[in-house]
Design goal:
139 residues, four-stranded antiparallel β-sheet
Length: 139
């Protein structure tokens, strides 16, 4: 069984910051991650990032989108690469993947927030119960 893996890192200026868009295709599953560099990164900084932090990026959320198979012909691959360079830096698939990732993070943080509030309310209730018990202890 052969596993197909392809990754690209596109660095562009979004008007305010320098941003890296990491796209990763593995066995037909597509994932994307957005990295904010801030100031314009040098080639050495980008290389250090790829070597040191690439493996820690979370490309795939719960759902992964399917992609087409890469072309076999080198000329066709060159044409597709030239076509990809003409497209804007952020693709719709990447935008969808990032949006899904944001939604998942939002849901998780809302659940955690809700759980934390419930725990705090329970702790306040226990504290009130304890106070009431201490008040009536002498009678």
């Amino acid at each position: 069984m052969q596993i197909s893996v392809s990754s690209t890192l596109t660095v562009y200026h979004d008007g305010q910051f320098w941003v890296g868009l990491a796209e990763h295709v593995e066995d037909g599953r597509y994932g994307a991650a957005r990295i904010v560099f801030g100031a314009e990164p040098s080639n050495e900084e980008i290389l250090r990032f790829v070597v040191g932090k690439w493996a820690k990026l979370a490309f795939f959320g719960d759902e992964a989108t399917e992609t087409s198979k890469p072309a076999k012909s080198p000329k066709r691959r060159a044409r597709e690469a030239a076509k990809a360079l003409k497209q804007p830096a952020m693709s719709t698939k990447a935008q969808q993947a990032l949006a899904n990732q944001r939604e998942t993070m939002k849901r998780e943080s809302a659940q955690a927030r809700s759980q934390r509030r419930a725990d705090e309310a329970e702790a306040r209730f226990e504290q009130r119960k304890l106070k009431r018990k201490q008040k009536h202890r002498g009678h």
